[in-house]
Design a protein that fits this description.
With 276 residues, the protein is an alpha+beta fold. Helices cover 34% and strands 23% of the residues. The strands form three sheets. The chain has a seven-stranded mixed β-sheet with strand order 3-4-5-6-7-8-9, with helices on both faces. The chain has a five-stranded mixed β-sheet with strand order 11-10-12-14-13, sandwiched between helices. It has a two-stranded antiparallel ribbon with strand order 1-2. It is built from eight helices and 14 strands. It has two domains: 3-144, Fructose-1,6-Bisphosphatase, Chain A, domain 1 (2-Layer Sandwich); 153-275, D-Maltodextrin-Binding Protein, domain 2 (3-Layer(aba) Sandwich), CATH 3.40.190.80. Residues 28-47 are annotated as: Disordered. GO terms for molecular function: hydrolase activity. Its EC number is 3.1.3.25. InterPro entries: IMPase, Inositol_monoP_metal-BS, Inositol_monophosphatase-like, Inositol_monophosphatase_CS.
């Protein structure tokens, strides 16, 4: 394989789609979540299941078969972020998965020099498959995606998420409470990758969350960008979009329809995003 072929977005996108779809099938064949072994990581509410580990092993094994020699950086198995070609979240939305809620996904992104060039997010519960390649657009089950045409912040439906640490959740809650009167409404679904995909589809007009890791947004941010959304990710390798990130916070992820992106960022700043 030539160096050009190895980093071609269309080729990497096809691999991401294939492995994400296969991993979803693998997850559907595992024991039900309530039978799963459960441990915790950063806090008692930050759970990891046996299925998370099983899916990541499956994805790593398939990438070794399909793309030998390419380093993988994953939520459960870690790796060298600086050298990564693949960034993997085996189950984004593990708490949803554990409780039997269907809003969880498997996120696989391909990066070149730390920048996302292709990615896919599969939804095991629904069978949906989101994907994008840099310069190639974004799709849901093969259908092109486009971010919403919303231009009034007061009509914007905004997604968000909360940290695992109680003290930070309290600060996030204060920020959201300040923002809520200025937008249509707020949703908290529990899976960052799928929230970003929802912005890509126009199901959300915006999404703002602090504390996401690279594996949470690596594929979803590219999907939202390729669908025409404005995307800003701070404090992580990869995406930096045309939004002034000052005072939004060192680890903020923001994606929004172009017509409300600047206003949403300004509202977040006024609401204390920089102190979250």
């Amino acid at each position: 394989m030539s160096p050009h072929e190895s980093s071609d977005p269309a080729t990497l996108r096809a691999v991401a789609e294939q492995v994400a779809a296969e991993a979803a099938e693998h997850l559907r064949g595992l024991p039900a979540p309530h039978d799963d072994g459960v441990t915790t990581k950063s806090s008692p509410t930050d759970v990891v299941t046996a299925s998370d580990a099983s899916v990541e092993r499956f994805v790593r094994d398939r990438l070794v078969q399909l793309r030998p020699g390419e380093p993988v950086y994953g939520e459960e198995g870690a790796g060298d972020a600086a050298a990564a070609r693949w960034v993997v979240d085996p189950i984004d939305g593990t708490v949803n998965y554990l409780y039997g809620l269907p809003w969880y996904g498997i996120s696989i992104a391909a990066v070149v020099d730390g920048e996302g060039v292709a990615g896919a997010v599969s939804e095991p519960a629904s069978g949906r498959l989101w994907s994008a390649g840099r310069g190639l657009g974004a799709t849901l089950d093969g259908r092109p995606l486009r971010a919403a045409a919303t231009t009034e912040l007061g009509q914007a439906l905004v997604g968000t998420g909360f940290a695992y640490r109680a003290e930070r959740r309290a600060r996030q809650a204060r920020m959201v409470a300040a923002m809520l009167p200025e937008v249509r409404d707020v949703r908290r679904a529990g899976a960052a990758s799928l929230d970003l995909c929802a912005v890509a589809a126009g199901w959300l007009d915006g999404y703002l969350e602090h504390g996401c890791n690279w594996w949470d947004w690596a594929a979803g941010a590219l999907i939202a960008t390729e669908a025409g959304a404005v995307v800003h990710v701070a404090g992580s390798p990869g995406v930096r979009g045309p939004v002034d990130g000052d005072a939004l916070g060192a680890d903020v992820t923001l994606a929004a329809a172009p017509g409300v992106a600047a206003e949403l960022a300004a509202l977040a700043r006024r609401s204390g995003a920089g102190t979250v």
